[in-house]
Amino acid sequence: MRVGLLTGGGDAPGLNGIIESVVRSLALAGHEVVGICDGFEGVFEGRVRSLTPNDVHLIHATAGTLLGTSNRVGTRGREAEFYAAYRRLVLDGLIVAGGDGTFAGLSPFVTETTEWGPPIQLVGVPKTIDNDLRGTDLTFGYDTACSVVAEAVDGLRLTAEAHRRLIVVEAMGRTAGWIALGGGLASHADAILIPERPYSLDALTRFVEGRRQVGQRGLVVVVAEGAAAQSESVAVARQVDTGPAVAGGPDPFGVNRGPEAQRLGGIAARLAGRLEEATGWESRVVVLGHLQRARAPTTTDRFLTTAMGVEAARMVVESAFSQAVVYRSGSVTRAPISDLIGEPRRVGPDHPWIRAAEALGIFV
Ligand code: F6P
Fold first, then answer.
1. Is 71 in the pocket of ligand 1 (CB under 6 A)?
2. How far does residue 100's CA lie from ligand 1's centre (Å)?
3. Tens of pLDDT along 100-135?
4. Per residue in 53-92, pLDDT tens?
5. Which member of 11, 38, 100, 130 is catalytic?
6. In Å, how far from its chain's centre is CA 154?
7. Which residues pair with 222 in a beta bridge?
8. Most buried of 282, 290, 303, 304, CB within 10 angstroms?
9. 11 is annotated as an active-site residue
10. Is residue 34 domain-shared with residue 135, that is, in the same domain?
């Protein structure tokens, strides 16, 4: 078989692990792998490269993606052009590691024969550091992002205590609080603020003052970029120009939906200002930003990408198309690609990590 491989959307640590596992296992079984460069851009422009085991040797230990990616090019309004460009690649199957937007962009072509022709034979691999894709319990890149947050908090606590300061750390995650919650809990941050639980500024102020009164020298708050105080709106770093609003559902690249049409950022600065004003405790801000996507994948993420890459390759060989490799109830398994598309999977109100944080006296 001649199998295409594409990485789409924002990068996540582990993408190179998927590439290495897919290429090695397909090559060993006698198949050819064609890498498509820069996500959908590479399809439109016919930019591909061959991928041999030598090309991908040990890249699983690195962040980024050997193939490049893009979260700016979609298929909406360009369906016929996209399909024709895809057919010119003459592939027997396509493996795509991407998020909700990538799979929504491919959905017009994958289930049945359409006006353009027979379906694209697709196997999906869910990807996002945000861990908010529906249809899977875990996405690769998430554990690495949590480690970045946790190690930052571990270090920042020391300088906060040295200077008797309060430090507010801003984590990524868009409309979901998984990264802030996972990284904040792993490092026993003093407070963890997530979009799913709008916080009371008064209650937080009382909590911070209480900690100070009992003699705590430094304090670290982890806030998700999409979090906001009750009755306040999310902090927006920049309104992204996504073109005219699309009626009847998500933009095929997922960039046209509510808060996701905006680049989030600035909540840590807002909050640090408010807390300093209210408590007089000198405050500083650390925005972790793209460092959360820049670290070599953790062993947990490497296990996941190895298992998922091998399974995705197996699915192509078995012609198990229109399906994704997912992680459910502790196992790597298969599910319809449509399971991945839709509203983000957010932290539930009774999630055990919320209860654990409360039991430790963390403000959450
Ligand atoms: O979805 C992954 C993510 O890293 C979000 O957590 C963040 O809001 C966004 O991507 C940043 O996107 P960009 O790379 O376009 O700045």
1. yes
2. 13
3. 999 999 999 998 899 999 999 999 999 999 999 999
4. 999 999 999 999 999 999 888 899 999 999 999 999 999 9
5. 130
6. 23
7. 169, 192
8. 304
9. no
10. yes
